[in-house]
Amino acid sequence: MVIMGRPGRAPLPGAPRRALALGAAFLCAGALATTSASARPPASDPGAEKRKVDAQVDQLEEDLHETSAELSAAYTALQSTKSKLPGARAVLDEAQAAAAAADRANAIAAQELEAARASEDKAEAELDATTKEVAEGRQRVAQFAAQIYQEQGFGQLDMALSSTDPQQFADRIALVDTVMDVQGETMDRLATEQASLTALEDHLSALRADSAAKKKKAEQALARAEQARDAAARAKAELDALAAQQASQAEAVAGQLASEKAKLASMKAEQSRLKKVLAQRAAEARRRAEAARRAEAARRAEAARRAAASQQSQGSSRSGSSGGGGGGSDDGYLSRPMSGRVSSEFGTRFHPVYQIWRLHSGRDYAAPCGTAVRAAAGGTIIMAGDGGGYGNRVVIDHGLVSGEHLATTYNHLRSIRQWGGKVSRGEVIGYEGSTGTSTGCHLHFETLENGDFVDPRRWL
């Protein structure tokens, strides 16, 4: 029997449940490439999304529960940051698209304002020219009116009386008619220009109102463009911060890997050592069983010889069955080692941090720290103490059961109660904890046949 010394270190605290991590991508930070986002997909069912995330979290916890709390926390934080990056990229793309649209709207508004101001300037020039023409026309009309007033309407008669011959009279009358026609045209043109002046004033007022509205629109468009650019800048800064955080977290994970791989190597070495010990004990158990079988056969032969010699008609020798140290049947030979739910089964899986396929060599039971751990069957404690990555560990040899040498191990215990000697089925041998490479309180329960790991469900 090999009994290892009691560990002097304090147990490691259990790490809380990590409620995020959406993939099993490795720790490499990589180059952050922002790509243009297409239209966002329609919103999915929140309940279905939550169930999906919960399943991913459960899987990640199962993948990482045989890892140190420090490395698990660093990797989970890295995965959390990675899960935020796509959303941050989408926000940045949307902000940049909004900023570009706002800039285009601002440019259009500026062009419209410039065109409105040009139209206003042109209308003002036309109004000035028309005002000048109206003023000049009014002056001509005033002069003509003054002349008519002075002549009291006798201009034509005076010209006729002062004529010396009929031809002169006719010429003067024609001249007077021409002058009157010109004056009439002047009056008509003045009326037209006055109407045009009124229309131009109304048009200019409308253009000035339009310019004021377009100026306000341009100012609003400029403000929106500035806000959109600010939002894009903030989104870019957030994305850059996440990228830097991701790189830092990846570096932290990489820094933990060397020591973790060393612990993993030590656990493999411990497994090899235990396998050799159990193989030797299996060979010894088989030799003892064979010796016992031969002795029993010899005893039976001697009994038969004596019976024949004494010519007794009845009598037979009874034979006993050699148990495996704890009793029980082939079906369900082992009892459940502790209460609590099964958090992880036996099997090969891909470790997201180590980036290797590895055997999860036992069955895990999760319950509050300090829950009693019991012997799954009667047997002899052959190892107890610090098992490195296994934490506080107890190994029980159950002897030969159905032709197989059976042993069980109890790992990550907070404390050990039984350090050696024989134990009975159901006897408390320790208390559940999170020592060694473990992210939270659980029992890592293993079964070995002839030194090789097998699925505990074969014996439970």
TrEMBL record:
Cited Pfam families: Peptidase_M23 (PF01551)
Residue stretches making up the M23ase beta-sheet core domain: 359-456
Residue ranges with Low complexity bias: 306-320
This protein's record includes keyword Cell cycle: no
Biased amino acid composition, Basic and acidic residues: 289-305
This protein's record includes keyword Coiled coil: yes
Highest taxon of source: Bacteria
Alphabetical list of InterPro entries matching this protein: Cell_wall_metabolism_enzyme, Dup_hybrid_motif, M23ase_b-sheet_dom
Keywords assigned: Coiled coil, Signal
Biased composition, class Gly residues, residue ranges: 321-330
Region annotation Disordered: where it falls in the sequence: 289-338
Region forming the signal peptide: 1-39
Residue ranges the record marks as coiled coil: 50-140, 208-245
Identification of the protein by name: M23 family metallopeptidase
Organism expressing this protein natively: Fodinibacter luteus
